Amino acid sequence: MSALALSVLLSFVSAVAYAGGAIVQERVAASSPGEQYAPLRRPAWWAAVALNGLGALLHVVALAYGPLSIVQPLGALTIVFALPMAALFVGRRAGATAWRGAVMATVGLAGLLALVGAPAAQSLDTGQRVAVALTTAGAIAALVVAARAVHRHPAVRSILLAVASGAAFGMASVFTKTVAVDWTAGVSVGDLPSLAVIGVLATAGLLLSQASYRSGGLAAPLATLTVVNPVVAAAVGITMFGETFRYGTTGTALALSCGVVAAGGLILLTTERLAREQRQAAPATSVPAVPAPAPAAATATALPADDPARGLLAGLEVPEDVSLPVPVPAGVPAGADAGAEVPRAAYAPFYGGPYVPVPGTVRHRMRVRS
């Protein structure tokens, strides 16, 4: 097997490992919403870390056997592998819009990186390294603050964290290249600060990517990571390492067109996620409840035992401080015997309103004392 074929094979396996790590990270984020950045107690998260580490190792070995212009664009296959793997293993299917966005982002990125030239290897001096490290730290901090400010919009928050993660990984690649160029002349103790920066940026990229998968799904954050990472590295390479686009003005125009295509793919992925959130947050149509009529103030115990209205009023209660006056018929003296019958008022229900009295038969006996 030739060195170029081995490099391509390692790049494919590296993309599969990165995709697997991203899927596991997304599942861990979905099942542990209270732990945004580092769910250290979850064995699955450590499995994701191992998959990402395997992908990074294979990527470095692929770069050792093949040119950067071929190995780096193949890293964009991560998003292409991740969508079918997520549908196959965890049943997380992406819509047609997400697929179109992923393909556009991948094609645009691959074209952009394929047009970047490969000049002679250069390194950064101490002042440039300090400036790049401080600028990167400030940009990542600003993106994290912005993400916290838009916590009510999970899709936007996820994209901002993914951009921060991609920037951290991209700048880690820049410092890795710097150290690799320095080591061609021999290992030096002066490279220890650069190695420390690589470790900090790689760790920050991993933690931010974990947070970006929380409430953000898989497609949009992973595509953002896949695009931002090499674009940041390519931008630094063009501005500080003397790299240029191939084919002169034509290559520059093609590179800008590829960048527009990749940005359009990211927009499709973001809008697809936002549309899904709006559908999930739409309130269900509810039928207004019809208020029940207030119970009438009546009591069954106020009626005789043989009164038919007694059964209708059973179970209804009247406050104790409410009394119903009973008129005394004419002809009954004020000092009548207590055993004399007094008029009774029968109550019948009137639906839709309170109980109203209905006149009933008045029977009355009078005892006259001699």
Question: Would you summarize the structure shown here?
Answer:
The protein has 370 residues and is an all-alpha fold. It has 11 helices and 2 strands. The protein folds into 2 domains: 3-281, no CATH class; 294-370, no CATH class.
Question: What does it look like?
Answer:
By secondary structure, the chain is an all-alpha fold. It folds into 2 domains: 279 residues, no CATH class; 77 residues, no CATH class. It is built from 11 helices and 2 strands. It has a two-stranded antiparallel sheet with strand order 1-2. It is globular, with a radius of gyration of 39 Å. The N and C termini lie far apart (138 Å).
End-to-end Cα distance: 138 Å
Helix content: 55-70%
Q: What are the segments in which pLDDT stays under 50 over at least 5 consecutive residues?
A: 338-353
Largest sheet: 2 strands, antiparallel
How many separate structural domains? 2
Task: Please state roughly what percent of the residues sit in beta strands, choosing from under 5%, 5-15%, 15-25%, 25-35%, 35-45% or over 45%.
Answer: under 5%
Overall average pLDDT:
74
Strand order of the biggest β-sheet: 1-2
Shape: globular
Put simply, the count of helices is: 11
What is the C-alpha radius of gyration, as a whole number of Å? 39 Å
Q: What structural class do helix, strand and pairing data support? A: mainly alpha
- Secondary-structure element pattern, one letter each: HHHHHHHHHHHEE
Number of DSSP-assigned strands:
2
Keywords: Membrane, Transmembrane, Transmembrane helix
Transmembrane segments: 6-24, 44-64, 70-90, 102-121, 127-147, 159-180, 192-211, 218-241, 247-269
Subcellular location: Membrane
InterPro entries: EmrE-like (IPR037185), Mg_trans_NIPA (IPR008521)
